[in-house]
Each structure stands twice: as structure tokens, then as C-alpha cells.
Amino acid sequence: MAAPRYGFYRHLWLAFAGSAAEQALLDDLAATLRPGQRVLDAGCGTGAVSREVLRLCPGVHLAMLDLCAAMLAGAAGTGAPRVLSSVGALPFPDDTFDVVASAWVIE
Length: 107
Known about the structure:
4 strands, single chain
């Protein structure tokens, strides 16, 4: 199971390959997010990007979704609802969110 060591592997991935892509995502979110918006972090993992979303714009209404219960457990502490489900079958009605972010889900 990847969840217990995810932070270690995430750090390596960002150090060697992914930091520019993640920074571009965060820059786009910083330009887009507004207080009151409903935001979904689809495939939130342990919540690293979710925490950045809340840092960038504390007034958003964030929800976190991941397929792995252990990853969601690692995402505790944000105050955002955590939903166990797949990004391939989102359990939300259309137009639930204003912004959907998804980082490092496909690989």
C-alpha cells in the first residue's frame, strides 16, 4: 500500500520531475480561486494540494475525494469533507463545484 510512504515518494517526485507542473497548477489556482467558491480536489491523496488550496484562498468550500481510505486518513486535519470514491465515477450532481483540481491522479 502506498499511503504510508506517499509523502516520501511525493517529495522525490517533486524534487526530480514534478515541481514545475505542480507550481503551474498552484499558480493557476491562485489566479482562479475566490472566497465562497466550491472546490473539489479530485484524487486528493494525503491532501497536499488541498492544503495549498486552503492556503491560497481560505474562504473556499473545499471537498476532498480519493479512492483510497488510507490516503483520505492522511488528509485529515483540513476541516474539509473527505469522500471515498473514484475520479472516474464522481458521486456528485452536475454543477456541484465551481473549480475542480486534480494533481497526480492519472499516473
